[in-house]
Design a protein that fits this description.
152 residues, alpha/beta, Rossmann fold, seven-stranded mixed beta sheet, 4 helices, 7 strands, globular
Length: 152
């Protein structure tokens, strides 16, 4: 499925919709260049889970846990991971296969660890459509977002 966003609020709303539909044990992978809106999407996702505390990218801590929503959220930013084996020290399997939802920024850097049934979210800019434009491509088993046409 592909959807278009013309503002941070719209990107946030797409994330929020997916957060409302997330189930225990799901893994969501966020891919895109620096500044494309991965953390905005993550904030929306957290809001959709009912998390009210501020969500920031865990760039230096690798993972941040949020437990106050309807499901625990495990927010990863693996940009600083030099080798996928470093994820073992974090105990990533307990998160990926646990009772919460894992949201992974820069997941392409640890692609060999990502479960086959993960939902992939690719966010891209297209400056020809404006500085705030984003194309959000969602691949995997996800809910239908009203008003959007499914294209794979």
């Amino acid at each position: 499925m592909r959807t278009e966003s013309y503002s941070e609020n719209e990107t946030f709303a797409v994330g929020s919709q997916l957060g409302r539909e997330a189930a225990p044990g799901q893994v969501y992978c966020l891919n895109g260049d620096l500044g494309v809106g991965k953390t905005v999407f993550a904030r929306g996702f957290a809001e959709g889970l009912g998390i009210r505390e501020p969500v920031t990218s865990p760039t230096f801590t690798i993972i941040k846990e949020y437990d106050e929503g309807r499901l625990p959220l495990y927010h990863f930013d693996v940009y600083r991971i030099g080798d996928p084996s470093e994820m073992e020290a974090i105990g990533y399997e307990e998160y990926f296969y646990g009772n919460g939802v894992s949201l992974i920024e820069w997941s392409e850097l640890i692609k060999e660890l990502i479960p086959e049934d993960a939902v992939i979210v690719n966010i891209r800019k297209d400056m020809s459509k404006g500085p705030d434009y984003r194309e959000i491509e969602i691949l995997g088993t996800v809910p239908y977002i009203p008003g959007e046409e499914a294209r794979r």
